[in-house]
Write a structure and sequence with these properties.
With about 375 residues, the chain is an alpha+beta fold. It contains nine helices and 19 strands.
Length: about 375
């Protein structure tokens, strides 16, 4: 079974979050020379397979077998891989069964390594991710088996395969501002405190505001207004409250304390006396540490990518979140590299067979360079 055939087989498992749909049984049999550790909670299953070749470094390939629902109109069966003109269609083809197929093939066909090779696969990356990768990392920590370095095979490339390696991710801050005014009759606005008028003054101070300058890895953290709610659907009633929802994809230079101070200063400038402010850091920002060892991992992977694709990959932190944030939190150096992300979560999700072959080549070359 070559990497493309392996991908097609993985697509045949309808593993919509949090189900692994029997795929773990197949993966365990495929890597029959590897030892297994499994965890399960609230319907979420996690699989960790490892093989110790020697006493050197522990390198792990991580990913998720779960996929989002098919959704939309498909030209083919989303859970039966179809190849058309060298392109493989199916849910999860790019996000991220393609990456999983590439590293499973690499692990199976590696005969010599100086340390330990492993894979961590979860069935809950596309969902709440509460009992997924984090639960397995807790187990590995108890067993003193955390890896030294990890590659997450998420679809990272943008315009062309090979153009991007993720060296970190922005965090995500969700927040709500409730402006409290005083309701009244539209005929007597002087007797009311209109929260909509107050909000109009506030929005000029905070909407799309850059909270830091960014750097070579991160774009500036920007406050994005996502929803505004007020009123009762009546023309003659001034509402008493207004809610503003916002999201910030933050770099390591911005945190909730900084946002809190910025917003409270803006409230004062807008003349807002009564308000409620709440925020939650739903995911943390992280960046591959700039020490020599971490730089070496990036350089080795970049060399393998360029050799296989002809592209010198850029270091990026763009995009949403991934389970790499949990891995980084444990102090493990982590990079992300995988196929193009153009069709992820969309109907007719696809990946070219050539990308899967080259991705496998890249992973195999990286293991050779490290071992």
């Amino acid at each position: 079974m070559n990497p493309v055939e392996l991908l097609k087989h993985l697509i045949s498992f309808p593993s919509v979050t949090p189900s692994e749909s029997g795929s773990f049984k197949f993966i365990k049999s495929y890597l029959d020379g590897f030892d297994a550790i499994e965890t399960q909670k609230e319907g979420v299953k996690n699989l960790f397979l490892y093989k110790k070749f020697g006493d050197g470094e522990h390198i792990c390939f991580a990913g998720h077998i779960d996929v989002v629902p098919a959704g939309g109109e498909w030209r083919t069966d989303p859970f039966e891989a179809t190849e058309i003109d060298g392109v493989i269609y199916g849910r999860g083809a790019a996000d991220m069964k393609g990456g999983v197929a590439a590293f499973l093939y690499t692990l199976k066909h590696t005969e010599n390594f100086k340390g330990t090779l492993s894979t961590l696969i979860t069935s809950d990356e596309e969902g709440d991710a509460i009992y997924g990768t984090t639960l397995m990392l807790e187990k590995l920590k108890e067993l003193n088996m955390l890896p030294d370095f990890c590659i997450v095979a998420e679809p990272t490339c943008e315009a062309a395969f090979g153009d991007t390696i993720k060296v970190g991710r922005r965090g995500s801050i969700n927040g709500k501002i409730k402006i409290i005014g005083r309701g009244g009759h539209a005929a007597y606005p002087e007797k009311a405190i209109n929260p909509i008028v107050l909000a109009s003054k506030l929005l000029t101070l905070i909407a799309d505001k850059e909270l830091d300058s960014g750097d070579e890895f991160f774009a500036p953290s920007r406050l994005v207004i996502t929803d505004i709610k007020s009123g009762y659907g009546k023309h003659n009633v001034i509402p008493s409250e207004l809610e503003i929802l916002f999201n910030i994809r933050n770099s390591t230079a911005t945190d909730t304390k900084k946002v809190d101070l910025f917003l409270k200063e803006a409230m004062q400038k807008a003349g807002i006396e009564k308000f409620e402010l709440s925020m939650e850091q739903s995911s943390n920002s992280f960046l591959l540490e700039k020490d020599e060892k971490s730089k070496l991992y990036f350089e080795k992977l970049a060399e393998c990518v360029e050799a296989a694709t002809g592209y010198k990959p850029k270091a990026s932190t763009a995009g949403g979140t991934s389970d790499a944030r949990f891995i980084a939190k444990e102090g493990i150096a982590v990079l992300e590299f995988g196929p193009r992300n153009e069709t992820i979560h969309a109907p007719n999700e696809c990946v070219s067979a050539d990308e899967i072959v080259k991705l496998t080549e890249i992973f195999s070359s990286f293991v050779t360079k490290c071992g």
